[in-house]
Amino acid sequence: MNNQKEIILETFSPEETFALGEKMGREAKPGEVYTLIGDLGVGKTVLTQGIAKGLDITEPICSPTFTIVQVYEEGRMPFYHFDVYRIGDIEEMDEIGYEDYFYGDGLCMIEWANLIQEILPEHYRQITIEKEPEKGFDYRRITIRSI
Ligand code: ADP
Ligand code: MG
Fold it and tell me: Residue with the nearest Cα to atom 19 of ligand 1?
């Protein structure tokens, strides 16, 4: 835990969060894993849509809640979008063959990754989005940690 790098960014509108995601998508490298943590309605989908745009994906990004993973192949690398919010048992990850995605050649994005902590790879980029009501309704603090 000693060599953790942490970047804190602030956005003041959904458009700004989308633009940040787009930049992250443009800079993403095959095989990277990003985790995304934050309460309902905080902007996880907005950020993910930006990332998809940055990967040159034009089809709409839907929440994969009922399928655990949604795969997008049309961008400049595959995009594996996980939402493990409804996972009952870690076995479900084995059943969908998660290792092919986590250790594959695409960008892997995992919402609610804290629920599958024990199978996360050794290194990943942890993205946390938080509100802070005193700073305004549209304020978001986005913390990016290299783990
Ligand atoms: P989640 O996927 O985390 O449940 P969504 O991305 O679906 O959340 O929704 C976020 C909501 O918050 C949207 O209605 C969006 O317009 C709004 N919003 C307001 N300010 C921001 C901001 N700075 N960044 C992202 N979303 C914001
Ligand atoms: Mg969402």
Answer: 138
By alpha-carbon position, which residue is closest to atom 5 of ligand 1?
43
**15 CA to middle of ligand 1, Å?**
9
0.70 exceeded by pTM: yes
State whether the beta carbon of 46 lies less than 6 angstroms from ligand 1: yes
pLDDT tens string 85-96: 888 889 999 999
- Model pLDDT for residues 16-61, shown as the tens digit of each residue: 999 999 999 999 999 999 999 999 999 999 999 999 999 999 988 8
Q: What is the 3-state secondary structure (H, E, C) of 64-119?
A: CCCCCEEEECCCCCCEEEEECCCCCCCHHHHHCCHHHHHCCCCEEEEECHHHHHHH
